[in-house]
Structure formats: structure tokens, C-alpha cells
Design goal:
7-stranded mixed beta sheet; NUDIX_hydrolase_dom (chains A, B); NUDIX hydrolase (chains A, B); WH_DNA-bd_sf (chains A, B); Arc Repressor Mutant, subunit A; 2 domains; alpha+beta; Nucleoside Triphosphate Pyrophosphohydrolase; WH-like_DNA-bd_sf (chains A, B); 33% helix; homodimer
Chain lengths: 253, 253
């Protein structure tokens, strides 16, 4: 539990360092061996969980701020973070406004203000991250998508909007470069898509479509071992992958 | 040319009404008879043009603010506006910071602050709009995409990002409901896509793909008149169209 004095100190510091009225919240999806998880923090002072978030320093670019926040929570630098939506309902952080209003004097109360939050999402291999709580949290950990705890503020909306965006983007942007090993089989890549979409896909359609995008290299060697026919290995064609990130997948117009 | 007194008055008023550090810029694309244009304003005090923009009132949802700004500039209420990106470079409005720093005292100078801008885009039939300048502009008018004037601040980046987003979104979201007449032919719809993409599309592929999305109703009547075979008429299936806006077009995974 944070004391009144601790909160006042954080608040006074925040007023010095950060831009008023703007926050950042990150939805960090973690994948490993066909499991999908999201990084969350258990609040010290409240009965609920939040997404990793923070504020923008007075002279800091917003994308740099998002990366700084994520690096502080996970130890990972230079994650591919993508802006996906801004959350700007006037009462979105009322829970915090009210809590802090009781604890910190108005004129030095950064947290009692209205905050418009820029949502970013990222995909990381969750074994790369070292979840690290912030000053306001007692726990930072991966939570299973099928077993999410109660969210604070509008963080459930931020989470579901990120997941919807990610699913929609599978149709027109490549995914997987920072999630798959360097060489992978088609069933392994299909598993990634199925995990994000939360549904089974037809094996032949998936393969046909994925190859049609022109972002994969078929490698000369196959994967040895196992009772079945050795499966082909693929890697991403980075040049085409980058182009597709920018211009959309070839199935576009 | 705005005087020092006028600027001071606007600035004092802005401090009362608006949230600090947050602005909104709108890229309004206008279509009519195969032409594509963008709504722009010629500044009174500077040698350049801007996109329609404004600020967020202290208790106003951000989407409501964007609609208010656009309604004020065009007379059109309830345009379908879509957030597409946040522009947050620390120096993005330095031009204005410097200009206003010379004209308005620091402690009452709203415009000398750093502003992070939320970009929205909209598509409207440009004959529906009555372009109306704001206090800082002498002209508000449609400019042809092939003949754009010099932009102020980072508004060229905002414009090109909106156009790139719109083009990418053609691959996975329906478009045209507020731009096409109630009943239209396939070549008319194709013309809209070609205008946005800035390139010709194959007639048969376009028709096959568009029908595959399941968002069109083929009407029993054809369009009469003209030397050629009377073309079929279509209308949008609103239920499927709305679902596709939310979930992506059927060509998705």
C-alpha cells in the first residue's frame, strides 16, 4: 500500500517531468509454444489489474516514451510497438481521480487530471521479458488470455481494442518475424495465426494464401526426425516482409 | 493578418476552454465525379496551408471534438471520422511556438506549448460541404490531390499518413457508403477505388472480388439509356457492410 507521502512525492515529480493530460498504455502480447498471454500489473492500492503504462516526458517523442515504458516493464529494448487507438472519454480515469483526490492536495495532484491515453501494442516472445512492477504495483506478470483478472479504469476496453486490431491486421499485414524462430514449418506459423484468431484454420488454404503473399523463403533443407514425412522449413523474406508492413500484403488491391 | 491583441484574446480564451497539449487535425477527403480533393485552410499570418484542426474541450470526448471541428469547417454533422495516427514529435509545432512567442506573453500563451495531435480522416461528398475558414485562416477550400499547396507544421506528414492508411484499409474494410449514390453500377464503384489508389484496376478482378465480400445487393433493375448494354445496379447491404467495418472483409482469415 502506498502512503499519502509517497503518492505526494510521485505526483510532485510527475508534474516536473511529464506533459499534462497525456498517457500511454501498452498491450503486450506474449507468445510461447502456442500460448498467448498479456502483460499486466496488480495495483498496490486498488483491487484490480492494469496494463503497463506511463507518461510522456516534456520533450520526448511519443514513440520513444512508449518504448521507454515497455523497456522499464520488461527489460526488452526496441520492441516493435504499434499505435492502435487513442482513448479519450472524459471519465476514463475517474477511478484514479477520486482515489488520488483524497490523498494528494489539488494543486500538486498530477494524477487527479484528465488523461487521454495513446494505446500501443507489441508482440514479444514472453521468455525474452523480465516482468518488473512499477511503483504503483505489487505484481507484474503474464496473464493467460482465457483467464484474465478484473481490469481497472478502461483497460479492458484498451485490451479488447488491441486484440481486435491485431486480428484485423492479420488480413493485410505480415506478422511473426519477432515471434517465430529463424526457421519454422508451415504448421508452426499456422499455429501462431490460430492462437491470435482464437480459431482453427484450414491447413491447405492457409498454406496457399501464406505462400501467395510472397514473404516466405522455402529453405532447401527439411526438418529431420519424427515419424512423419520431414516437413519443409521456411524463413521470412525480410525485404518483402518490410515492404508488406508498409504497403499491405499482396492480396490487397 | 491577426493582430497581437486578437491573438492574445484567442489564447486567453483557449486556456479557459481547452485541454493543454492535445490537438486534433482532420484530413477530409472529398469525392465528386471521379475527382479526389482534400480540405485545406490558408493561414492569415503565415505563408502556407493547414489541415482543419482544433482542440479538445476540458470535458469533451475526443471523437466529439473531432466532429465539432469538422462540423464547424464544413457544416456537415455526423461525418464518419476515423482516428488513424497520433503525431507526437516534440518539435512538430515549433513554427507556431516561435511565431506566437513573439506576439503573446508566455504565461497566457496557449499556442506556444507542445501539442500532440490526434489525426482523424473523413470521406465526404464535397458538394455536401460548405468550406468555412477559422479565425486564423483567410481561405478554406478544396485542393486537388495533384496540385497541393505548401503545408505548414507537419501537416504534409499528417496528410500522407492519412492517404496511406486509407489505401491500406481498402484491402480489409468496406468503403463508399457515404460517397456513392444509393444505387450505383460496378464501374462507378471501381472508379472510386481507382481514384483513392491512384491507379487502374482490372475490371473482372474488381467485380469478382467485390462481389466476394458479400456487402453488395444486386438490384433487379438495370440502368436504362445509353448505347451500351444496360449495366446492373447495386446498393450496399448495410448489415453486412457494418459487420465488415467491424470485423474486416470476408477475404480475411
Amino acid at each position: 500500500m502506498l502512503t499519502k507521502e509517497e503518492l505526494e512525492e510521485y505526483s510532485a515529480e510527475a508534474i516536473e517531468i511529464y506533459l499534462d493530460h497525456i498517457s500511454i498504455d501498452c498491450v503486450v502480447f506474449g507468445f510461447h509454444e502456442g500460448q498467448m498471454k498479456v502483460l499486466m500489473l496488480k495495483s498496490k492500492n486498488e483491487d484490480g489489474w492494469q496494463l503497463p503504462g506511463g507518461f510522456v516526458q516534456k520533450r520526448e517523442p511519443i514513440d520513444v516514451a512508449a518504448n521507454r515504458i515497455l523497456a522499464t516493464r520488461t527489460g526488452i529494448d526496441e520492441v516493435f510497438l504499434q499505435q492502435f487507438h487513442v482513448f479519450g472519454a472524459p471519465d476514463r480515469n475517474r477511478q484514479h481521480n477520486e482515489m488520488y483526490a483524497d490523498m494528494v492536495a489539488k494543486e500538486k495532484n498530477f494524477f487527479a487530471h484528465r488523461f487521454i491515453s495513446i494505446g500501443y501494442y507489441a508482440l514479444v516472445d514472453f521468455f525474452d521479458a523480465i516482468p518488473t512492477p512499477d511503483e504503483f504495483s505489487e505484481i507484474c506478470t503474464w496473464r493467460d488470455l482465457n483467464d484474465l483478472p478484473p481490469f481497472l479504469l478502461d483497460h479492458e476496453l484498451i485490451f479488447t481494442t488491441a486484440l481486435d486490431t491485431l486480428r484485423l491486421q492479420l488480413s493485410y499485414q505480415p506478422i511473426g518475424y519477432n515471434l517465430m524462430p529463424k526457421e519454422f514449418t508451415m504448421p508452426e506459423l499456422q499455429k501462431l495465426y490460430e492462437t491470435i484468431l482464437g480459431k482453427k484454420l484450414d491447413r491447405r488454404n492457409f498454406q496457399r494464401r501464406m505462400l501467395g503473399f510472397g514473404i516466405l523463403n522455402k529453405l532447401p533443407q527439411t526438418r529431420k526426425g519424427g515419424a512423419h514425412k520431414a516437413p519443409y522449413l521456411y524463413s521470412f523474406d525480410l525485404e518483402n516482409y518490410q515492404a508488406a508492413l508498409k504497403e499491405g500484403l499482396k492480396s490487397g488491391w
